[in-house]
Amino acid sequence: MSSEEFADTNILLYAFDLEAGKKREVALAILERFWTERVGCTSIQVLQEFYVNATKKLGMSSVDAAALILRFSKWKVHRPEANDVLLAIRLHREKSVSFWDAMILRSAMSCDCSILWSEDLSDGQVWSGLTVRNPFAE
To answer: Which residues of 43-67 are buried (b: 16+ CB within 10 A; e: fewer)?
Structure first.
């Protein structure tokens, strides 16, 4: 695995949620490090989820959300293919994770990331050399 790191949707959303308090600070610090150290990765799925939730839950304008997606697209962005879906289905079946979490894991693995930042999976769990980190875990 490389030094690259993957941001799940919740990390991106907290960074722009003005009511997220400490979670916003932590998420912003992760994104800042992604930019300064050039280690950021994400996926088409995350960008889609970000758009929907930023405009609906955060009340962000479509224009502002699109501008942020354009910025995030400067990172390595995984564009899943049919084989990725099949491998995610295997993860879903064999490891009892939701299909959508399996797609996130598959995308992070495809980007050769060493860390997946997410609050949706178990902190410290290792998946084929990919370590899940929940930056909000206490």
So the answer is: bebbbebbbebbbeebebeeeebee
